[in-house]
Amino acid sequence: MGWIWLFVLLIATAGGLSLAGKLRGAALQVSLAALMLGAAGYAYQGRPGLPGAPREGGLSRPALPLTEARQAMLGNFTAGERYLIIADSYARRGNTDEELGAIRAGLKAYPRDLALNIGLANALVDHAQMVTPAAELAFERAQQLAPQHPAPLFFHGLALARSGDLERGLVQFRAALALAPPGTSYRPMIEQGVLLLGNSITEQQMVPNQAPRQAAPSAAPPPPPQAQPSPRP
C-alpha cells in the first residue's frame, strides 16, 4: 500500500500550494484528483467496519484541504466566504471547535448561503472524523438550497469516501456529474472523482474475504490511474 502514502504526500503538497495561490486551471484539477484518491486510499487502508465514536472536543488531525475545491465549484466571492476562510485556518490546525464556530457565525448572517451550508457539513465531518447524522442533515439542507447544483452531492460523496463508505460516495459523485454542465471548469474534477473512486472500489473487491467460499486465483491490483490535466476553460 505504499502508493497510498505517496498520495498522502501529494495531498499535503497540494494543500500547501493552494494556500500560496499557486494552483489554477489544469494544475488545480490534477491536485484535487490526487486529493480524492488519497481520501479513497485512506478509507481503503483503514478499518471503516469498526464502530464509530464521535469525538467530544479538543484538537483533531488537520482536515483535508477543500478550499480550492469549494472555490472552484462555488466561487470565492460568496457572501459567506470570509467566514469560510477563517474556518479553513482553524481546520488546518485541527481546531474543529473553532472551525464550526466560525461557520455557524456566518450562517446566522447568511442562513441560505450554499457555500456556508456545505462548509458546515464538511466541518461536522472534520469534527467527528466520520459522517454523522448531523453531517447528513447538513448535506441534505445544502442540497435543498440548490437541488440543481453538483456541489452538495460532490462534497457529500467525498465525505462518505473519507468515512469509508466508498460505494455511497461513488453514487453521490455520479449524481454530481449528472448535474455538472459540460464545459465548466470543475466538471473534469468530478469525472476524475468517479473514475478514481470506482477503481478504488474495484481494487477493494479484489481483496479476498477472511473466510472465502472458494479459493480465487491471485491477481495483482491495477496501478492507480494517472489524472490527466484538462485544458484551462
Q: Quick one: how many beta strands?
A: 0
**H/E topology pattern:** HHHHHHHHHH
Helix content: 55-70%
> Using only CA atoms, what is the Rg?
17 Å
Average pLDDT figure: 75
State the separation between the terminal residues, measured CA to CA: 35 Å
Largest sheet: none
Shape descriptor:
globular
- The secondary-structure class comes to mainly alpha
The number of helical elements comes to 10
Low-confidence stretches: 1-10, 40-58, 210-233
Oligomeric description of these chains? single chain
Strand content: under 5%
Give a short overview.
With 233 residues, the chain is mainly α.
Tell me about this structure:
- This protein has 10 helices and no strands.
- The relative contact order is 0.14.
- The N terminus and C terminus are likely disordered.
- With 233 residues, it is mainly alpha-helical.
- α5 packs antiparallel against α6 and α6 runs antiparallel to α7.
Write the layout of secondary structure elements.
Elements: H1 2-19, H2 25-45, H3 67-74, H4 81-92, H5 96-109, H6 114-128, H7 133-145, H8 151-162, H9 166-179, H10 187-205
Helix pairs in contact: 1-2, 2-10, 4-5, 4-6, 5-6, 6-7, 6-8, 7-8, 8-9, 9-10
Descriptive keywords:
single chain; 233 residues; mainly alpha; 10 helices; disordered N terminus
